[in-house]
TrEMBL record:
It comes from Centropus bengalensis (lesser coucal). Keywords: Leucine-rich repeat, Membrane, Repeat, Signal, Transmembrane, Transmembrane helix. The lineage of its organism: Eukaryota, Metazoa, Chordata, Craniata, Vertebrata. GO terms for cellular component: plasma membrane. This is Leucine-rich repeat-containing protein 3. The keyword Membrane applies. Belongs to the LRRC3 family.
Length: 234
């Protein structure tokens, strides 16, 4: 009974993952998991964590709701990993409190803009093999980026070879717009849809008129075929 009482009395929200070290910083819990050869985000991070360092590991993906239970989290360091994929809802649940998010020095080529634009945190995205596209351009214009690292967001690949190897900010300042092609595609798709709809209306009207004309002709032929019709006509 004493054992079960002990289990019930343990503050599970304050437990610490075995691969990490938990300390206090000015009364706030810091969870330090740097350089621990982690391949995924630990599941048992304390709910009252305010600072979380997961840098210098081998994490490859940030799945949906990875930090949802960490409503007090203010600083999150995921730099120097091998992150390639970030799910749309990766940071769901931490958007309100998060002040700093470091994703620098990973393997991120693209990211769903919804994952980052929902945040008010200061973002560090430098030193990733970015593919310069519309979503990244929107993140650059709308997200709160760390001004000291924004120049290191470089086009590793791009629709045009002349942009490769250049800072994205420099490319955009030179007049490039990666969202214009998407807008043209959307406009064309809308035009095709409207044309198809208009064509369907025209076909319907033509068929309707033709059907009514055929019915009218049949009615006239029927009236002509009646016995009294010829007598009245004479």
């Amino acid at each position: 009974q004493a054992f079960f009482c002990l289990l019930l009395c343990i503050p599970w929200g304050s437990s610490c993952p075995p691969s990490c070290q938990c300390t206090e910083r000015a009364g706030a819990k810091a969870v330090l998991c740097s350089s621990r050869h982690l391949e995924e985000i630990p599941k048992d991070i304390p709910k009252d964590a305010v600072f979380l360092k997961l840098d210098a590991n081998s994490i490859t993906r940030i799945p949906s709701n990875a930090f949802r239970h960490l409503s007090h989290l203010e600083e999150l360091d995921l730099s120097r990993n091998a992150i390639e994929k970030i799910d749309r809802a990766a940071f769901k649940g931490v958007a309100a409190a998060l002040r700093t998010l470091d994703l620098s020095s990973n393997r991120i080529r693209n990211v769903p803009k919804e994952a980052l634009l929902a945040l008010t945190a200061k973002l560090r995205l430098a030193n990733n093999p970015w593919h310069c596209e519309c979503a990244l351009q929107e993140v650059l214009w709308e997200a709160r980026l760390d001004p000291d690292s924004v120049q290191d967001i470089t086009c590793h690949t791009a629709p045009r070879q002349e942009y490769v190897g250049k800072p994205l900010l420099q490319v955009l300042d030179a007049g490039a717009n990666f969202c214009s092609a998407r807008q043209r595609t959307t406009d064309v798709a809308m035009f095709v849809t409207m044309f198809a709809w208009f064509a369907m209306v025209i076909v319907y009207v033509v068929c309707y008129v033709r059907h009514n004309r055929e019915d009218a002709c049949k009615q006239v032929d029927y009236l002509k075929s009646l016995p009294g019709t010829h007598g009245e006509a004479t």
